[in-house]
User: Fold this.
Amino acid sequence: MSLAIVHSRAKLGIQAPPVTVEVHLANGMPSLTLVGMPETAVRESKDRVRSALQNARFDFPSLKRITINLAPADLPKEGGRFDLAIALGMLLASGQIPADSLQDCEVLGELALSGELRPVQGVLPAALACREQQRTLLIPSCNAAEAALVPGVRIIAATHLAQLGEHLRGEQLLTPVSPAEPAADPAPVADLADVQGQAQAKRALIVAAAGSHNLLLFGPPGTGKTLLASRLPGILPPLAEHEALEVAAIQSVCGRELVARWPGRPFRSPHHGASAAALVGGGSQPRPGEISQAHHGVLFLDELPEFDRKVLEMLREPLESGVIHIARAREQLSFPARFQLIAAMNPCPCGYQSDPSGRCNCSPEQVQRYRSKLSGPLLDRIDLHLGMHNEPFSLSSHAPARPSSEEAAAQVISARERQLHRQDCLNAHLDLGGTREHCRLSSADEAWLEQAVQRLGLSRRASHRALKVARTLADMEEATHIGRPHLAEALQYRQLDRQPTS
Assistant:
């Protein structure tokens, strides 16, 4: 046949839109034309394909007028991911492989000049889309482990173009790739029991984990803020299958190795010098930033006031919606960003305000200027604010501190199960209507809360978030209704200026 059609997939954000590779061979002046909005790397594929076919001992139709179309034409195409589809299209059009050999198949892969298949990025989203279409996915062997994370998709992987040609001709069939299994021995996590003291901070960390609330820890250097934040992944429940696949899809388009630690929750800790594009995503060809790479996991921002204020203000939208939108002249992309924010900061520029040693010399103006780097709207979106202080150091007790990560995780899982059963989402993700329905108070408690909110000067957003924290505290105690002790504890976590006492 002189016209061949091969199905492939582009990479657009974390999506894999379909691309039809059409190859037409006609009589006339020998030439090779590639159309369909290809970028430079795609246009160069014709040279890679020619060498790969010849080195794989196939006949290149050099005496034909070859036209290759990548449809739809208005979809941007990048990289060498269409090399293999173009090569197989030429073999199909020239009759070197059977006409029905690529029925119900999708093809991805870059070609080396020798004919070897090289890996491409974004295979996992393509595997998800291929499963929906109930097609077989033909890919390089280096991408097989990643694609096998998607259950229910048939995958054929090869290392060389000649090997794949033999399979399609029925001469030597390749064995489909077996589905991947989660790691039998998950990566070890730091135990919460290793943190000595700081009982109130541990309590706040467990509350934050139970309701997926954002948490701000502030206190002098060396109080264990970073240590506590690193323990959060160990007390979070395992990812559900659909959550694990979403996380894996983001890592796939970023080109990161993920099979070894799949399906663990991500923990991202960018440096405070990170740019806006690094944190929220972007670039000429938009890629997920740190907040999207922390999707269904933890984003830890240490030394929060040291981040550029404009960068921090970009967190406001995804903290509310769980999605980040990036607009460019040619396209608009959306990346998921349902992360849990844990932030840490010092109480003043030197870090030792209210320290018993009296070593802080910061003036009230300096402290105010330091804290004003964080806007009120951003602080409103952080549910819990907890002050920490240095505790006496002691090695006298060798017994592990309680609770351990295992004990805390059991409490977190129990509280989350109650929330999901009641409202089908976690407390931190309740919208305004859900808050009114599931966070009802008695008339006396409602009046008391209103007075407390006015006395503390909290905004409506901050008061609603405090109410959701109170709902989590009630869930942790398996209480049906929110009580005044839950409200009182939740409000204690809303005061950044409160200094802890020994």
Q: What stands out?
A: The chain has a mean pLDDT of 89. The longest strand covers residues 18-26. The radius of gyration is 28 Å.
